Amino acid sequence: MRAFLLTSAILAFSTPVLLSQAAAQNVPAAAHPSTPEFIAVPGPSDIRLRQWIGVPVKNGTNDTVGDVNDLVFSSAGQIKAIVVGVGGLVGIAEKNVAVKFEDAELRQNPDDKERVVIINATKDAFKDAPEFKAAGEITAHDRLNEASEAVRHGYEAVRERAIEGYNRAKEAMSGGKSSFPAE
User: Fold this and answer.
1) 85 near 91, Cβ under 8 Å?
2) Whole-structure pTM over 0.85, yes or no?
3) Which architecture, in CATH terms, is 49-136?
């Protein structure tokens, strides 16, 4: 029994040390830079994501076609695409469409700081464009379709039960044999 207690105590005290050593060995050296470079003020041409989310997207004829929902970055850190929310009403049931960053022009009015993204495409082109979604992502559009399908199935089930109930009530009122279960 003493040997068991001694072994248990040694394992209890050594396990955290062994686990922390194993975890430290699995951390890449790049995760611990010696001195990071800090930036106090963004450069005049730097793009800050939060300033562009929700900005209206207009086409060449100044029609609003949607708004910026997201930016897609490459693994090298370059902006690859702008994700535009199109259609829907107040963000409900809108579809995300990704457009290559090179095909967009970011504009900012220097006087009032108002921002807009210009993409030369018609409203119909945005409407007909394929929906952008990451693998495994469920969009609001998907949820709306699922809810619509659930309502349709629920309606059909209720309708069938209502017809069955109507037929049983009709049969009972006509003096025929009742199909209602006895109470």
Assistant:
1) yes
2) no
3) Roll (2.30)
Tokens of 59: 């086409």
pLDDT at 182: 52
The contacts found for 84-90 with CB under 8 angstroms, 24 or more apart, are 84/57, 84/117, 84/119, 84/126, 86/126, 86/127, 86/129, 87/126, 87/127, 88/140
Rounded to whole angstroms, how far apart are CA atoms 168 and 158?
Answer: 15
Residue type, 82: I
- Cβ-Cβ contacts under 8 Å for 52 (sequence gap 6 or more): 68, 71, 106, 115, 117
For 76-124, give the DSSP string. Answer: TS-EEEEEEEESSBTTBT-EEEEEEGGGEEEEE-TTT--EEEEE---HH
Residue boundaries of the structural domains of the chain: 49-136, 138-175
Helical (H) or strand (E) element with 66: strand 64-73
Gap between the Cα atoms of 1 and 13, Å rounded: 19
Q: Which one has a higher pLDDT value, 78 or 2?
A: 78
Residue 53, amino acid = I
